[in-house]
Design goal:
This protein has two domains: about 1-50; about 50-90. The model has no long low-confidence stretch (mean pLDDT about 90). The chain is built from four helices and two strands, in the order H-H-H-H-E-E. It is mainly alpha-helical and about 90 residues long. The structure holds zinc ion. Keywords: Membrane, Transmembrane, Transmembrane helix.
Length: about 90
């Protein structure tokens, strides 16, 4: 029974980590991993849409949004890769 508890806790912690990576509420990831094990992990992964991941990258400063076409570009970029509009330097 100790092994069962350990495995359940492991899934919950991994679920939380996946939730954080995918921009999902970490408590949801924890509960899904705890209750559903590997299926919960897959569920948590699926919850994080591409849009959410973009938002996470924006928050982390890994991407900047072009104010001309709203596409995401790398912070090092001088011009937007989509519309070639000059990007403002990344200042928060
Ligand atoms: Zn652009």
């Amino acid at each position: 029974m100790i092994a069962f508890g350990l495995i359940t806790t492991l899934f919950a912690v991994v679920g939380m980590a996946i939730a954080r990576e995918r921009g999902v509420d970490m408590l949801s990831g924890f509960c899904l991993g705890l209750l559903l094990g590997p299926f919960g992990l897959v569920g948590t992964y699926m919850l994080g849409s591409t849009d959410d991941r973009d938002e996470v990258m924006l928050k982390k400063g890994q991407r900047v949004r072009c104010n001309q076409c709203a596409e995401l570009a790398r912070p090092e970029a001088v011009v937007c890769p989509s519309c070639h509009h000059a990007l403002a330097p990344a200042v928060e």
